[in-house]
Structures are given as structure tokens and as C-alpha cells.
Amino acid sequence: MNTTVFQHRRLHLFQAMADNSVALIASGKELIRNRDTHYPFRPQSDFYFLTGFNEPDAVLMLSKTADGYKSHLWCRAKDKEKEIWDGYRLGVDAAPEALGLDSATDVVQLNNELVTALADKSVVYFSFEQGELWLSSVMSVVQQLKRRVRLGVSAPQTINDLDPLLHEQRLIKDSAAQAGLRQAAQVTVAGHMAAMQAAKSAKVEYHLQAALEAAFKQQGASHQAFNTIVASGENACVLHYNENNAPLQSSNLVLIDAGAEIDGYAGDCTHTFPLSGRFSAEQAAIYNLVLAAQQAALALIQPGTPYDAPHQAAVRVICQGLIELGLLTDTLENAIESGSYKAFYMHQTGHWLGNDVHDVGQYKVNGQWRLLKAGMALTVEPGIYISPDNQQVEARWRGIGVRIEDSVLVTETGYECLTAGLPRTVEEIEAWMQQH
């Protein structure tokens, strides 16, 4: 582990914190799946971003005083018997050197040691998203410290949300984060290619899922970044479909939205292709329209562009195309203003990407869409979904769902497509599937 990366991140956060303050960040707890079986543990993203440590029941404390910056970890102690059953632990003694921290103690001492840690501090930071975890314990400590006022001890007077400081830092990707996102994106592309290659022999949606996720694992992905979506036919009109158990029909399109997670970074990509290897005329028309909308959105990705501008560009292209195909009976401007297009396209054109697939960071600042900056990572993912129940369109269009999604990194001069490598045009997809 390159501890320098995490030390630099902690220093960046220290510099943003108020004087005489403490920040508390927890890794999280293991969750029960059923009875005594656990879900695979993944640390909270804020914690991992600052430590690179992936054990449960750990808490990082960053303390900023007139004497300087100090980092302390509460973690699980070594326990030979438990390690036989549940796996190895880093332990208290090894943690400071392994993680580049100043000190560490046993997490069972957390509540007692927190009283000393917060004494005479002015500000306490924690994520308000973890309010249930921290509010009662911090307030208990504050009450204890207030009872010591005659001993010359002061209690914190302010509790602040850590998210605005830390999440703005996570929004602009450092070089390590950019490298992690590139790797996750390319493993994601390899998984999508494996699913396309499996289409000839696959009988059920989960056969494609199996091929995709096997490719992820073979290339080092620890997890999927989110639940894999393999939606064939009209299932593609359900945006977060993940049953993945419908029989495959060769006449249908299949929409796969999936991403690999590598070293805490999320890949995210959506690919839509015909199971037979050939698009029908209607499928090709919708696919080409979505691709044109994505290209219009991508053309605007550069520093200084308002975040919402690529979405508005995609909406305009989709509205015009739906009108030309006879699926919308409206004028272009009225379709945009009234939102009538939302019967076919009901989501935004993207989201931030990073340690979380829907990554942190505000989309607006002071009520205005924020401007893109170099180092931001986001997805660009327009789609068109024609409900099988839509009686306003001809039957030949119903049940077609198409989404095309790429992950991009904003650069100084434009953008880098992190998920480059998939065949994207109708002609490229058909040629690739005939060849493979």
C-alpha cells in the first residue's frame, strides 16, 4: 500500500478543517445477510479514501491543534482464535506504520478515549449521513466534559458536517484516483465484451451476467460497483431492473448496465446490443438516436461547462428525433418546455463517479449548476425507453429500451473517455458480433 497517497489526502483535509478541531470517520460494521451469515464487508468510502484500510469496526480521528496535525486509528486488536475463523487482522501494533498514521489503539477503548480526545476542542466534525452512529456518543462525551468545567476542561461548542469539506475534496480526483478509475473502467469494458461474446450460447439473462462478472473477477475486481443489470427486451424499460432471470429471445435487444470495482474505485458503463447480432429497423432507429444524443452531450464536456449543459443537449437531440420518428406529436420547443419527452427519457444524463458509483459532490453551488473542472469524473448516459404499455405509439416500437453510457474524466482541454473500447455504432456492434 502506498501510504503517501492517503497521507496527502489527510493533509488536504486537515488544511480545510477549523483550528482546534477533531474529525471522526468510521469504516462501518459488518451487516447480517441472514441469521449468522454476513454480507461481504466493504468500508465506507470516506474512510477508505483517507486510509486505504478495509477492516470493519475501525474509526479514524484527525486532530488539528496549535501543536500540529495528528492522525489516530481505533481498530480491532489481534485475536488468534477469531482470526482462525474470520480471517487475519492488521492489529493495533502494526497499524500506524502500515497505514502511515501517528497512533492506534484498540477499538474497545473508543468510548473512554473519546472523552480525552475531545477535551478542550472547539469543533467536532463527522458526516451527518452517519449521524445515528455519532450524535449520541459525541453528545454523551460533551455532557461529560461539561461536568468537568470547574476542573478547567472545556467541551466542544460546535458540531459540523464533514461532508462539505471531504466530499468536495473527493470530487476533484487526484492522480491516484484517476488511475484507479481508469483501471476499473477498462475491467468494466472487458466484462461487457465477455457478455457480448456469450450472447450466442446464453439462454437466460443471468448467463450473460455470469460471463460479465467472471471477467471482472478474472481481472482483479473485488466487487461489482453496483448490482448488475441485464435487461432483455421490455425489461430494459425498467431502469433499475436486476432480477436478471428472464429467458433470452434472439429478436430482442439486451441492455447491460454494470461496473467493476477495483481498489475502491467504481466502473460504470451501459451497453445495448441485439442478441441475434442484427438490429431490426426500429431498434436501429432508437439506438442511433440515443447514440447521437450521447455524442451531443460528450461534445460539451470540458472545463467551464455548466454541469447541466450536456443533459440539455441530449434532451434536445432526443426530442427532435422522437418527433421525426412520429413517437412525439409536439413541436421541439414545446416538448422540451412541457417535458412530454419524459414518457421516453425520464432520468438525467449522468452523475459523478469515483469511490461510489453515484459519487459525492454537489451538483449546484448557490443555486446554480456548477461548472465542470479538470479532475472531475462523471458518466454520460442518455436513453430511450418505450413502455410495452404505451398505447400512444405503434406496436412495433413498444418494449424497446436503449441506454448508452460511458464514464469520462474532465481534462484541461476536454475529456478522456475511460470506458473506451466497446463497439458503439450499429455497424460496429453488428460487425463485432458477427466476427466473435
How would you describe what is shown here?
- There is one protein chain.
- The model has no long low-confidence stretch (mean pLDDT 97).
- By secondary structure, this protein is an alpha+beta fold.
- It folds into two domains: 168 residues, 3-Layer(aba) Sandwich (Creatine Amidinohydrolase, Chain A, domain 1), CATH 3.40.350; 264 residues, Alpha-Beta Complex (Creatine Amidinohydrolase), CATH 3.90.230.10.
- The protein contains 13 helices and 21 strands.
- The strands form seven sheets. It has a six-stranded mixed beta sheet, with helices on both faces. It has a three-stranded antiparallel beta sheet with strand order 9-12-13.
- The two termini are 39 Å apart.
Summarize, please.
By secondary structure, this protein is of the alpha+beta class. The chain is built from 13 helices and 21 strands. The chain has two domains: 3-170, Creatinase/prolidase N-terminal domain (Creatine Amidinohydrolase, Chain A, domain 1), CATH 3.40.350.10; 172-435, Creatine Amidinohydrolase.
Task: Please give a handful of descriptors for the protein shown.
436 residues, alpha+beta, Creatine Amidinohydrolase, Chain A, domain 1, Creatine Amidinohydrolase, 2 domains, six-stranded mixed sheet, three-stranded antiparallel sheet, 13 helices
Write the layout of secondary structure elements.
Blueprint: H1 3-16, E1 21-26, E2 32-34, E3 37-38, H2 45-51, E4 59-65, E5 68-75, H3 80-86, H4 95-99, E6 103-106, H5 110-118, E7 123-126, H6 131-146, E8 158-161, H7 163-171, H8 175-198, H9 205-218, E9 223-224, E10 229-232, E11 253-258, E12 260-262, E13 265-266, E14 269-274, H10 281-298, H11 309-324, H12 332-338, E15 364-365, E16 368-369, E17 377-380, E18 383-385, E19 401-403, E20 406-410, E21 415-417, H13 426-435
Parallel strand pairs: 1-7, 5-6, 7-8
Antiparallel strand pairs: 1-4, 2-3, 4-5, 9-12, 10-11, 11-14, 12-13, 15-16, 17-20, 18-19, 20-21
